[in-house]
Known about the structure:
A: mainly alpha, two-stranded antiparallel ribbon, 22 helices, C: mainly alpha, 5 strands
Amino acid sequence: MEAFSLLLHGFSVLLTWKTLVLMMVGLLLGVFVGVLPGLGGPNGVAILLPLTFTMDPTSAIVMLSCIYWGSLFGGAITSILFNIPGEAWSVATTFDGYPMAQQGKAAEALTAAFTSSFIGSLFAVMLITFLAPSIASFALKFGPPEFFAVYLLTFCSFVGLGREDKHKTIISMVLGLLLAGVGMDTVSGSLRMTFGFEDLLRGISFLVAVIGLFGISEILLTMEERLALRGHAARISLRVVWNVWKELPRYWATLLRSSMIGTWLGVTPGGAIAASFMGYNLAKRFSNDKESFGKGRIEGVFAPETAAHASGTAALLPMLALGIPGSGTAAILLGGLMVWGLNPGPLLFVEHKDFVWGLIASMYLGNVVGLFIVLSTVPIFAAILRVPFAAIAPMIVVSCAIGAYAIQNAMFDLWLMVLFGVVGYVFKKVGIPLAPFALALVLGNRAEDAFRLSMIGGQGDLGVFWSNGLVGTITTLAIVLLFWPLIEKVWTQATRRLSSAKA
Amino acid sequence: MHYIFKACVSASALLLGAVTSASAWEPTKPVELIVAAGPGGASDQMARMMQAAIQKNNLMKQPIVVSLKGGASGAEALMYMKGSDGDAHKVLVAYSLIYMLPLSAKLPFNWRDLTPVSILALDQFALWTNAGQPHKTVKDLVDAAKASSVPLKMGGTGSKREDHILTVFMEKKTGAKFSYLPYKSGGEAATQLVGNHIASNVNNPSENLEVWRAGQVRPLCVFDKERIAYKTKVAGDLSWNDVPTCKEQGLDIQYLMLRAMFLPGKVKPEETAFYADLFKRVSETAEFKDYLERQALKPIFLAGAEMRKFLEEDDALNKALMTEAGFVAK
Amino acid sequence: MANSDKEIVVEDPTAPGADSPAVVSNRVVDAAVMILLLGLAVLLGYDNYRTGMSWEDTGPQAGYMPFYLSVILAGAALYGLVTALSSRDAAATDAFVTRAQLSRVMQVLVPTVLFVLMTAWLGIYISSFLLIVGFMWGIGRIAIWKSVLTALLLTAALFVTFQYAFDVIMPKGPLEAALGY
């Protein structure tokens, strides 16, 4: 119970008026930058970092981590209201969150997103509290083959799920993988698929593509139908919140599963993205009513949000314990730690107990306070829907452009965004699904690198993917998931035969 | 909203209140510090330290922001600088990448197109193994590599770059075989060594410092003519000075990497002068000196003609190494 | 907190009529997309073949994965092309887009393209102002003073947020330069 007394000590460090005020300011700023296009978590934290240089490290990290929680909460807002994912891991939230908003259930969707974010974070924080040392050492078990196996698992959980034609799903995923490979290849250090264009050196930014595919194309589609919008004058009442919360126990399995996936993947870099997709897909796979996913099912909001936020929270653990940031925002927090003269690494837990436990305690408080702050601001955000579309549309275009430009300060990215907008519009209309494309674009490169590093290490022998218990289990699981429809069919036939034989 | 605005206003007031500098020209908008590497790497750490040193000591009125452009192994940052001719609000935190990337990837970039401002330090490289492994000297590691049926794995940052070159030259000098695993950052290579996924790595001291302090890795030697000067105890009762040079260990390879600041091309002389003065003063701050010592960087300060001379020589040296290692793209 | 939810529906008097003639059928667009994808696959496949697509003793070369991905893409696109052309599905001959719909899509797409084009010359703030005014007034038929006011407030807010509060550098044009930014 050493952890428990340390945590109590952490709370005692935290519970002063000054820190509580900093916390509120941080959360509000965070929600604000999370909603603002082109800022989002990492940029927001980076920009606000200098504000904290004059504070003592504990106050500073409390404020920064609250900005982080706030931006995590805020990222869900644009995904649900406008189908524009502010962060890579919010993509899966748009699948059901946006349809819900279209059906006039924006307030419910937002409440669901915030609540499940809260649950995911809380789960991860509790795990961090009690398992910090052992989770940190678990992260060390991940070499290239293990990383590849995890990515493979993410991809496999995607294939064979969609209602779309199989060949169209394949086209979408393969195209994403191909575009992910554009630019410099890390493993050989040579350029590929750039055709001599300097602008292609950087590769195709995932966020630019997503802003075009989801944001711009949505405006084109909406425009094609009519300049009308149905929204709810959602004065959030306690009733909406209560109605959503009432639903929670029914989805305990989804929430628990997503929390676990999120925490597990959070300790590996880039985990939150994989976690949100995997959380969504598994919820769909285990659901009795697969058809209703993607059409505004509340579970489709719960699953990815819980996973993404469990993962976003867990991402701080390897940063503190090993000095490897698990996400972009964690990387910037890492920079902050160094500015304050703290050196993230295994020794941080020994040398700066006050700081570490103060931070962990702030995760608890920040999330509780954050939930109330965002819930109370839901009506403001839902009210955005009341503005006429003719005014909203150009504003969304401007937002998308600012977001796309801010990523790399490149004009070329604005043209890419428009191009992807048109591609998204056509793909949606001919029934090529966009989700596999987004997934492949974001994870394709890492998966390929991990595969090739495994091959170099394993002398070109595919056996490395079964070389130990951990990687073997994940790889096998991935392959089982890939062939699940087939296995399921064989299984039902076998049982039917068995039962008919008995009869 | 009220809070946000207040916070922002007070922040800008804070920054505007900074002490005036003596230079004629001064930045008129936020200065971007461009890092040609991913988050958490040695370049990023240096940029953030400089940002803190400048802001804490009020060395400049305008704020300074670190912007990471590590895409395409850092090529993104180089091309960004190349395309920013005449913009004196962008400063590149450069390292030997500026010589190597144009050779290995046929990148249309030449550091002579940029404006060199100053060289702030030289970074060391060391050979590291996992502390749990029996290799305590370079000879142990080389013998183990020769005895092993499959080549031992050596980790490093990027392909056909400094780390890769050091590995190739180790192979040439010792006859042992290593398989080189190019990771995306030095931090990743450090973690992978701690997790025993690779047998050794050739990280900069800063990249392995924390895991060394935690007793998880062991430095075998540094790739320099002389030992690192710092005698403060860093890891247990060992100081950087206690790490032998590779030459002492019978492995005659030396390599030092510059850490320099560049402005884009075609900037005015007074703009270059402002930054030369600024970085000179940064290099005199307590934060910077502390940083050099902690990260075991070799102090050096070069600007103007001296710097150009150094760059030309360093360029020729790197080109020779790249050619010998067979990394120059045809 | 007793407010019950109230539904708002914003009706659109300019909605496209259902009887507008089709510009192009689903089948044609489907086939055209597949042909474009096929072309892309061939192009990328060729580039990766040039980069090197064999398997060395240390694993695949830089072009290996993308090359085979191009092959898979080409295969899937070919299959898609055949299905699109041979489809007997009634939906295949349905309109992909009607003339009225297309003109409305263009009403957003063309301003967006112009906006990006202008951004390169005038900077993002002026272009945003023009886009918002143009769209609200010209297409949304919202009163000119409302449009200008909204655009002005929004652009100013963006400018203050990015320029001062967050130090994010956005493309700027001659007007900002004249004002000293």
